[in-house]
């Protein structure tokens, strides 16, 4: 019997034939659009706060929601800029050639997994924004060449990215290692900073980070659907574009040469911005010690992207295309900011954290910190905002119990890695860039959630 290969048929999931297929099948039917999910979570948290939170009254709830919704806007723009500037780097011709060269080595689904996991994991360990962009674009390049299930491949990229909170861009680890940082709660309580050697470079962090990448690579190779159930990548290219998609700022290709067009195509503007940016970084790092924060990361990405795209108009066009991929985050960040505001303002987050802390011992506190963080992360999917909510309760407990402060803090960060596999917030940009529905992807990452949950918990308990 000939199989229906029409585009409509490709959107219809096959009937489940195993555990993984069943998860994908369920997620496609149960999980709503991420924006709708964020609204549902807001309603759930609001009701829970009214019922059990210490200050769960309507005026406090409304005020906390409003404060959180608009208090997150600056941070939201920073995150969107990281993604947009990272996208412009990844879209540069030289980077695209590199991705195509890498993708040419993936000739089977197994080789695709063996390529994607280490490449994306290394990129994510260096910088979470870079990992998201590289994962999405590398997946597209591989899928153009190999008969592979695209949702499976994108889920593999997202799973490899999950280790980012154990890497150099971990906001929790970086803030505790930075003197005077607003989120350095350890320094505020003890007067000391926690060096990265005791957090992201410590064995209890390095070992599970490597294990998650290795183990999930092997599992994903086994999870690839059978050939008859594969839903391959459909590259619409420019065929589906219509006049409504045209860039209103683009100058017609047949337009006569003018001063404006020559200025746009000149490297003069690029060189001017590069001089300003490089000059500032050189001055700052000379006068103070080398340090990376969100703003300098954005600046570095901006400068690299400008250099790679070469002309101002090429960079501007790349950012315009990036904006189409990050638009959904403009909706979700304020909604999750409102959830964070409700949890913090009504005392709901402190209730969750304290409930675990009260039953902890010096040895078990990092694990309880990890478990409570799993719950909070599902509702506040931002490591920085999450730490601001949970840190003030778990750190004093660690100090009073004489528990390991670095281990307790990194327990929160590790749970971020795990919960992101069920919380679709950070999956939105990768699926938007890749061009796929998020529901099929989350069906696969649910397996990553279960496996990494055990690996990180075991490392906190057993690894020195």
Automatic annotation (TrEMBL):
Transmembrane residue ranges: 35-53, 65-90, 110-138, 200-221, 268-286, 298-318, 330-353, 359-380, 443-463
Cross-referenced InterPro entries: SCFA_transpt_AtoE
Domain of life (superkingdom): Bacteria
Keywords (A to Z) from UniProt: Membrane, Transmembrane, Transmembrane helix
Protein name, as recorded: TIGR00366 family protein
